[in-house]
Write a structure and sequence with these properties.
five-stranded mixed beta sheet; 19 helices
């Protein structure tokens, strides 16, 4: 099976500008392609994961990746898929986030002489002269066409700022710049970026008379059509300090039955022939498939040792003989206690198990919380300092979430 055929078989491809040409380039290892990542946080998250997987697949087939860190476009903010304007970030925050992205990507993508390269669009966007940009680039864009673009639709409902309106031009200019300076002939991105990507191919065609190509990746959605990678406490991060390896493992271990095979096709490098065998399973048989999915993804992001620890911890917890070594842990100090104790709701809030005390109160009253396997039904329940000493206590939320709290 060719590289492109495998992308199709795994369901990765959403839209392409010229399928025959893209298939030929990808299969021959002749694509110099880029994917952009705006540094809106200090860690990549699950939403970026599929783009990284695609980048790795194409690199393995001999194609050359260009990782574009959006230090410049982050100054504006992508309006795609949003109903409100993104919070403006300082240049210091953007730089810090860019540095964090680089460290994470270097563990996943093969950089070096003749391999992948990493660039930051701040290097060319921040020095642009506004009037020159209007004359050189602005004249190539139709406002009527831009206003019809899918990426602006949701923002139009509440009011699209002129700042955000420029985002498409900035992203298009990136492709134009990379085409000229790095021989970048293809852009890949999420399906919500299609309009922005077409803007780049059109700018290259109008200004240089050359063809460039674009392909969008299927968005990572669950069976209900909602974006995956979110929990009650926020995004599932690739940084172990923001989402512990065990929590990362458990997120994938707990995906719905309807989503496990799709996730395995989109995100892992498990051979399709093996996945097709898994497709024949259902019911409780899918538990082993979910465990395999969680292990493979945790191994890719955090390494085999952490994946094994998470797997062993998960198995021990559900066997009734918990090994808390790799369990997510919150360490409290005397400052967290009042008269030598802490309420269960405060403890869960500090541990990130609940988004608010109101949610925690409802959960406790409905019987969804246990401490050391003892059900807690009183929201006023407290943990004493003596309870938290030594190995501490294990709080269980629902059937699948475990968290250790100690002093």
């Amino acid at each position: 099976m060719t590289c492109y055929d495998e992308l199709v078989a795994r369901g990765l491809i959403a839209q392409v500008t010229n399928e025959d040409e893209i298939r030929k380039m990808v299969n021959a290892g002749e694509a110099t392609f880029y994917i952009g990542f705006d540094p809106t946080a200090d860690s990549l998250h699950v939403g970026h994961f599929m783009a990284l997987c695609l980048m790795k697949r194409l690199q393995m087939a001999g194609n050359k990746p260009v990782v574009l860190i959006g230090g410049g476009t982050a100054m504006i903010g992508d309006p795609s898929g949003r109903t409100d304007m993104r919070q403006m970030m300082t240049t210091e925050t953007i730089k810090h986030n860019c540095d964090c992205f680089k460290v994470q990507m270097e563990r996943f993508i093969d950089f070096g002489e003749g391999k992948a390269i990493m660039v930051n669009n701040a290097d060319w966007l921040l020095g642009l002269n506004y009037v020159e940009l209007l004359r050189e680039v602005g004249a190539q864009f139709s406002v009527n066409n831009m206003l019809r673009a899918e990426c602006y639709k949701q923002r139009m409902e509440k009011g699209l700022s002129f700042l955000e309106f420029n985002y498409m031009i900035m992203q298009s200019y990136d492709f134009y710049h990379l085409f000229q300076h790095y021989g970048c002939n293809m852009q890949f991105g999420g399906d919500d970026q299609w309009s922005n990507m077409l803007g780049g191919t059109e700018l290259i065609r109008k200004k240089l008379g050359k063809d460039a190509h674009a392909m969008t990746i299927t968005l990572l959605l669950n069976s209900e059509g909602k974006k995956m990678g979110k929990t009650a406490n926020g995004a599932v991060w690739l940084d172990a300090n923001k989402t512990a390896p065990y929590d990362f493992f458990q997120y994938w271990r707990n995906v719905d039955d309807a989503d496990v095979i799709k996730c395995m096709k989109l995100l892992t490098f498990i051979p399709l022939e093996e996945i097709y065998e898994y497709e024949k399973l259902d019911g409780s048989e899918l538990n082993a498939v979910k465990e395999r999915l969680a292990f493979e993804l945790t191994k890719m992001i955090h390494g085999e040792e952490e994946a094994n620890k998470a797997l062993e911890t998960a198995r021990s917890l559900f066997s009734g003989k918990p090994d808390t070594a790799a369990m997510p842990t919150t360490v409290l100090t005397a400052e967290n206690l009042v008269d030598g104790a802490i309420g269960i709701l405060d403890a869960m809030l500090l541990a990130g198990l609940i988004p608010s005390k109101g949610e925690g109160r409802r959960l406790v009253q409905q019987g969804g919380v246990s401490v050391n396997d003892e059900k807690v039904t009183d929201p006023a329940f407290t943990l004493k300092e003596t309870d938290l000493a030594g190995d501490g206590v294990v709080i269980k939320k629902g059937k699948k979430v475990f968290h250790k709290i100690t002093m």
